[in-house]
Amino acid sequence: MPTTCTPIPRHRLWQLRLKRQGLLDPPPATCTKQTLVKRLHTLGQVQVDPMQVVGRAEHLTFWSRLPAFRPSMLDHLYAPTPRAFEYFTRAAALVPMDVYPLVASVMRRPHKGHYWPRWAVEWVDEHPAVADRVLKAIEATGPMSSREFPDDGSRRKGWGGAKQTKHAMDALWGIGKLMVCARRNGEKVYDLTERVLPPDITVDHLDERERIAQLLERALNAYGVTSPKELAEAYGSVSWPADRKLSAADVLKMAAEQGWPTINIEGTDEPWICDRAGRRSMGRDIKTSSRRMTLLGPFDPAVIHRKVLAQLTGFKYVFEAYTPAIKRRYGPYTMPILWSDQLIGRVDAKFVRKQAMLMINGIWLEPGVNASVDLARALAQMLRGFADFLGASAIELRQATPATLSKRLNKHL
């Protein structure tokens, strides 16, 4: 389809992305397995990250959309009938189970461009005895975590100096011999793929270009609208050709072949890509009755692409956990505040588990945002809900900017 000539206002594209991400409509009152499966499908994938300054990345992503979600509910996606699998796409991620056939061929026959599964193949080839020992142990005893293998002293540099059996499990996972069947206190538990993969999931050979097109279309449906570069990176190397990284030009060519509409957006000459339903909705603003406020974690799919976020909203977001303290502008674990369809500020927080306390190190509103009574009330309510989700029984507010916000917040917290 030809590129539209009239530039689309950026805020409409942002609204469409929020709508697809499950952040614009009122959330359901309860959270069930079906709710989780549906949300994972709309998101396409959810990044998994062990950093727990506040909570795990995947838990924060689900809570932002489903306030009734609690971390233990994620177990429903793994068992008794798995509806999701973990793999390294753009990053370590939880992915809908029906995507498995689209990445299985990369696991089994990785090429130069597929860097993580290629590493896995090379590692197993170099350490066949360790890999075989791990496979036989899991086959005989059932699901196992790395912790359950004794440390035989065989460690190597990289990945925190992990023992060889852990490297073997990760490599066997990378080539599709093992799957993550559960999480125990955040640690991956592995089992043989044939014992985890549901019988309705079949792995057939797919034409490489068709496989890539299907993955990109899933990402496109999750975003609604996206830049070619963002789409090229959506599933990382598993959606790249065998010999090279997928480029923005490759994606635009595929968009023309697949009939994905391309559009102009205000302020840039770069064409963007949308799906057909998204293109039909761009003639007007998306109305929402929801005035819900939530936090977005640093690995949330709505904000993970920092350049796209800045292009569409003007919100400049830097994750400062790895920034030297003296160079930080806000804090190590700063999360954007979303109120309806507006990013109104950011919160730097830490969950002090021993004291069951949510420590709010700072809150900063964006320029031009009024620290009204209504905003303070909504923010306090959201923070109380966030504390409850984390298991915190108390909240300590250290600072909020402007000062009027601090005074009003303390009345409601």
Please explain how this structure is put together.
Helices cover 37% and strands 17% of the residues. It is α+β, with helices and mostly antiparallel strands and 413 residues long. The protein has two domains: 290 residues, no CATH class; 92 residues, Aminopeptidase (3-Layer(aba) Sandwich). The strands form four sheets. Strands 10, 11, 12, 13, 14 and 15 form a six-stranded mixed sheet that branches. A three-stranded antiparallel sheet has the order 1-3-2. Strands 4-6-5 form a three-stranded antiparallel sheet. A hairpin with a 4-residue loop joins strand 12 and strand 13. Helix 5 crosses helix 7 and helix 6 packs across helix 7. The model has no long low-confidence stretch (mean pLDDT 91).
Structural descriptors:
alpha+beta; 15 strands; 6-stranded mixed β-sheet; Aminopeptidase; 413 residues; 2 domains; 15 helices
Q: Compute the gyration radius: what is it? A: 22 Å
Estimate the global geometry from the Cα principal axes.
Answer: globular
Span between N and C termini? 52 Å
| Poorly predicted ranges | none
Helix content: 25-40%
Which structural class fits the helix and strand makeup?
A: alpha+beta
Q: In percent terms, what proportion of residues is strand?
A: 15-25%
- In N-to-C order, the SSE pattern is HHEHEEHHHEHEEHHEHHEEHEHEEEHEEH
The largest sheet is:
6 strands, mixed
Count the DSSP helices. Answer: 15
Number of domains: 2
Q: List how many beta strands DSSP finds.
A: 15
Rounded mean pLDDT score: 91
